[in-house]
């Protein structure tokens, strides 16, 4: 089983929760030919096998339920403060369902209505719902102003799905939406260049350029890093994290221990973290997840010799959004292998299928996931394990970088 996740943000662009998307088998696109309640049961089991905290941190897990599985006791395996019960848009409503939802609410669970497109005052479940999710592609904001006002008057939390631009996010926020789901946060908003960002990028480029020389100097790298005491401290912390040894006594020792490829990776991680201080933390975490996920996909996809380049490609895949520049501008001045620039700028080349597969997994586009993973000869289990490990790794690294 493959479980993907999509972040849900509050109005401060902090992660409120993750909607969990899942595929059971290679052939499945939604429920794999079995009942939806069986699929949801598999997801809940998978959450325990994977570790709920690894998939959603300390946030809410949004999971789809139908009118059958919502009656199962398995729902109660997840604590109320970790689960939002999403009722599917085509759910069959009867007296038993209404009684069960009241029972769930009394236990402390939040109830969300997924892809809501009905008349608000006429739909029986709106009185029980805590969160109402509007797909703003299917129901544009202009068409739901009256229902939105009614819902807000009843203290409902409104969630805008399929938010793809900053303009849509701002408009939904003005209307009273408090939660947002989509890829608006990972796209550049090009509104001028920041001098501080450019300067920081230049400093990091000097270090990365030294690493990429045919004969890099550890002395020169040590000198460049020690010019910034905060950077020096963080490099030493990372060496401690990697080695499990708290006795790393110098920057030079840390660099020697990690090796050139590890140095390049960690410096790049720090660079993205620093350049993106005014960006949602989830954007930087996505870069880390993509980095480890891409590395693993290269290994399993018979591209082991490209694993380091794949890792860097995943890491830099959000640099345009972090710098609010085109990808071509964002990568300018960074000496990267052509396989990376071809994938991120030209959308072609040896690493592009891995980049495509990562994006398809994040969006739950299962037809594309199936096709690309077959082309790369990556099994469903390898895909699932690689993604879960990438999330866990990103969580660990985030705690070390900050």
TrEMBL record:
Pfam families: EAL, HDOD. InterPro entries: dGMP_Pdiesterase_EAL/HD-GYP, EAL_dom, EAL_sf, HDOD, RNase_Y/CdgJ. PROSITE patterns: EAL, HDOD. Residues 197-382 form the HDOD domain. Residues 1-202 form the EAL domain. SMART domains: EAL. This is EAL domain-containing protein. It comes from Acetobacterium fimetarium.
């Amino acid at each position: 089983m493959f479980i993907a996740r999509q972040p849900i943000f509050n109005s401060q662009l902090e992660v409120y929760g993750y909607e969990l998307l899942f595929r059971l088998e290679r052939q499945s696109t939604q429920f794999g030919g079995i009942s939806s309640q069986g699929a949801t049961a598999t997801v809940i089991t998978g959450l325990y096998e994977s570790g709920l905290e690894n998939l959603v941190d300390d946030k809410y897990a949004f999971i789809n339920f139908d009118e059958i599985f919502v009656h199962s006791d398995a729902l109660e395996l997840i604590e109320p403060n970790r689960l939002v019960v999403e009722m599917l848009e085509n759910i069959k409503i009867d007296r038993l369902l209404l009684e069960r939802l009241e029972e769930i609410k009394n236990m402390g669970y939040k109830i969300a209505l997924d892809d809501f497109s009905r008349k608000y005052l006429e739909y029986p479940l709106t009185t029980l719902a805590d969160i109402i999710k509007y797909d703003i592609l299917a129901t544009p904001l202009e068409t739901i102003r009256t229902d939105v006002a009614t819902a807000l008057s009843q203290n409902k939390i409104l969630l805008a799905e399929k938010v793809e631009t900053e303009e849509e996010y701002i408009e939904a926020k003005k209307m009273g939406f408090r939660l947002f789901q989509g890829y608006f946060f990972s796209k550049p908003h090009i509104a001028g260049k920041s001098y501080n960002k450019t300067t920081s990028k230049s400093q990091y480029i000097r270090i990365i350029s030294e690493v990429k020389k045919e004969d890099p100097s550890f002395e020169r790298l040590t000198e460049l890093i020690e010019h910034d005491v905060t950077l020096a401290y963080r490099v030493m912390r990372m060496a401690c994290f990697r080695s499990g040894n708290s006795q790393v006594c110098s920057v030079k020792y840390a660099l020697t221990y990690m090796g050139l490829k590890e140095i390049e990776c960690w410096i790049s991680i720090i660079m993205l973290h620093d350049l993106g201080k005014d960006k949602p933390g989830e954007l930087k975490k996505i870069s880390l997840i993509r980095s480890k996920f891409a590395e693993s996909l290269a290994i399993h996809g018979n591209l082991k010799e490209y694993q380091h380049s794949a890792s860097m490609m995943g890491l830099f895949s959000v640099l345009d959004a972090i710098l609010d520049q085109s990808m071509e501008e964002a990568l300018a001045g960074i000496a990267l292998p052509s396989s990376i620039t071809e994938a991120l700028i030209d959308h072609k080349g040896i690493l592009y299928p891995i980049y495509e597969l990562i994006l398809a997994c994040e969006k739950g586009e299962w037809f594309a996931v199936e096709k690309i993973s077959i082309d790369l000869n990556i099994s469903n289990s390898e895909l699932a394990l690689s993604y879960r490990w990438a999330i866990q790794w990103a969580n660990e690294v985030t705690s070390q970088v900050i």
